[in-house]
Design goal:
This protein has 530 residues and is of the alpha/beta class. Helices cover 42% and strands 22% of the residues. The protein has helices at 40-47, 72-77, 82-87, 93-108, 112-127, 130-143, 160-174, 190-202, 214-220, 239-274, 279-298, 363-370, 405-412, 417-426, 443-457, 473-485, 497-503, 524-527; strands spanning 2-11, 14-24, 29-33, 55-60, 64-67, 178-182, 206-210, 223-228, 231-236, 323-334, 337-348, 352-356, 378-383, 389-392, 461-465, 489-493, 507-510, 515-518. It has a 6-stranded mixed beta sheet, with helices on both faces. The chain has a 6-stranded mixed beta sheet with strand order 14-15-16-12-17-18, with helices on both faces. Strands 2-1-4 form a 3-stranded antiparallel beta sheet, with helices on one face. A hairpin with a 2-residue loop joins strand 10 and strand 11 (337-348). The chain is globular, with a radius of gyration of 27 Å. The protein starts with a strand and ends with a helix.
Length: 530
């Protein structure tokens, strides 16, 4: 189980949770919800022991499985294969790695001693349930939409989406008593989401999940904790039931705040009318003043409505030539892994090209090539005349720890600080957020900062790799609308069918084959499946 007593959490000098007490017991399925930047991810990190609390205490009873938002950490820390990493959830990875080394040694030296060493290791691996575990792992990753053969590759060569599925598989395979999942459906197609929701419905441990996936919140949870401005309020039921209850609470709060405000005004006016009359009435006025002061201290505030519609706009792009990008015979491989080969295409001014394909098909690798962050194994590409390319990386590679939000904006533009602060304010990063270490932002806030940098850079060709991941619904809608109205050129990777529909692409590039086709709404069904 999971318990917190008088728990406080601080991020960037701001208190995001104040003295909260709650528990998540076996069988509880709790959704932690709130706007981008409310502190949901920070709370999970404190509960997981990855960050210290600002006050109070928390504890996890039993084994913990914690899925973070960032798959980059996995690529840095894990050097073995995907299979070994998932098996590590039950401590079987070292035995599997030793067995593989002995098998390779046996191929080189088929001596009696080598055969005996391999046989003993294989017997130990089998008795520990290793072979049955491998079959179970392959069933798990198949449910999460990861091809079985990807398990035999090094984790470092997998795409961000594949690494995240792999880590989710490891956590589920471990059979933890407590699961904490931060945006678990990021990078999952519709079939994998359905599989995960069924898994979570049948899970018997304690579950705490942060997600903006409304289907997941409705299908797989039974309780909601709403985090906002340091307060944590609990609601029973699904996300839809929470929304109804929350709306009712806000309506009651608004009525109570209005009544209290009216009474304060009435008593203040009465005191003011009596203040300069007789001495007796002046004493009554002072009594009324004290009463008004107490009422103001105890008065409730009206409901905070953070789920407002953002109004985001991208400036008109600088002019460029008719041909924006041309690629000829592009191929990319990592060691022995061939990601794609002989991909050729062109993009003209104002066109919107959607890059589609399964996880691992090379979509991110292609965008990194076009952004100049990687070199092709074969082939070449070139930008057109007057083209300025801006790249949005799904793993927020450009956001560096130790630098503030404003410093990141200065790197993107030479505009005055006042203009840059106004720009990030348009994305909801206002006030002291400008001076906060960018690495401490939530996933959704990092997305907004990266998009604000693109706006500040005044590019006319945008390479967007999953730009709506981690965004709350109002932000996703506003940014989708802004991009749909922008007349510049875009090359986009997205699993978000709603966003793709808003964007209305002109053409689709299917990876890894590199097949081009005119866009049709019939392809929308493939977007969430890709």
């Amino acid at each position: 189980m999971l318990e917190a007593r008088n728990l406080s959490v601080e991020v960037g000098g701001r208190l995001t949770l104040s003295e909260a007490t709650f528990s998540v017991r076996p069988g509880d399925k709790v959704g932690l919800v709130g706007r981008n930047g409310a502190g949901k991810t920070s709370l999970l990190r404190v509960l997981a022991g990855e960050a210290p609390p600002a006050g109070g205490a928390c504890r996890v009873g039993g084994a913990l499985g914690f899925l973070t938002q960032d798959p980059r950490q996995l690529a840095r820390q894990v050097t073995g294969t995907g299979m070994a990493h998932v098996l590590s959830g039950r401590g079987l990875d070292e035995a599997a790695e030793r067995l593989e080394k002995l098998r390779l040694a046996l191929e080189e030296d088929p001596s009696t001693r080598a055969v005996e060493r391999y046989s003993r290791a294989e017997e130990r691996f089998a008795s520990a349930g290793g072979y049955a575990a491998e079959a179970e792992v392959r069933r798990l990753v198949a449910g999460l939409g990861l091809a079985s053969d990807r398990l035999d590759l090094a984790v470092s060569v997998l795409s961000g989406g594949e690494r995240r599925r792999l880590e989710l598989a490891r956590i589920l395979f471990a059979g933890s008593d407590v699961l904490m999942l931060d945006e678990p459906t990021n990078h999952l197609d519709s079939d994998a989401k359905a599989w995960l929701m069924a898994f979570l419905r049948s899970y018997r441990g304690a579950l705490l999940v942060v997600s903006h996936d409304l289907d997941l919140l409705d299908e797989s949870i039974t309780r909601v904790m709403h985090l906002d401005e340091g307060d944590l309020v609990e609601y029973k039921g699904t996300y839809s039931q929470y929304r109804q209850a929350r709306a009712a609470d806000e309506e009651r709060q608004a009525r109570l705040a209005a009544r209290q405000s009216a009474e304060i005004r009435r008593l203040s006016d009465l005191a003011e009318s009596m203040r300069h009359q007789t001495a007796k009435r002046a004493r009554v006025a002072k009594t009324l003043d004290r009463r008004v002061s107490r009422m103001r201290e105890d008065a409730v505030a009206g409901p905070r409505r953070h789920e407002r519609q953002y109004h985001v706009s991208f400036p008109k792009p600088p002019h460029c030539g008719r041909v924006v990008l041309e690629a000829e015979g592009l191929s990319k491989s990592y060691s022995t892994l061939q990601v794609f080969q002989q991909v050729s295409f062109g993009v003209e001014r104002g066109q919107r090209l959607l890059v589609m394909g399964l996880n691992g098909a090379g979509k991110t690798s292609l965008l990194r090539l076009l952004a100049g962050l990687a070199e092709p194994t074969e082939g070449s590409w070139r930008p057109g005349v007057g083209v300025s390319v801006g790249y949005y990386a799904q793993e927020h590679e450009g956001i560096v720890a130790g630098r503030s939000v404003l410093e990141h904006m200065r790197e993107a533009s030479e505009a005055a600080d006042s203009e840059l602060r106004s720009l990030i304010g348009m994305f909801g990063l206002s006030g002291d957020k400008a001076f906060q270490d960018a690495a401490t932002l939530s996933g959704g806030e990092k997305t907004k900062l990266a998009l604000a940098q693109l706006v500040a850079g005044r590019h006319n060709c945008l390479l967007l790799d999953e730009p709506t991941n981690n965004l709350d619904p109002p932000s996703r809608q506003a940014i989708g609308q802004a991009l749909s109205e922008w007349p510049g050129t875009m090359v986009v990777v997205s699993h978000d069918a709603g966003f793709v529909s808003q964007l209305a692409p002109d053409r689709a590039l299917i990876m890894p084959e590199g097949t081009e086709d005119a866009w049709s709404d019939d392809l929308l069904d493939l977007v969430s499946m890709a």
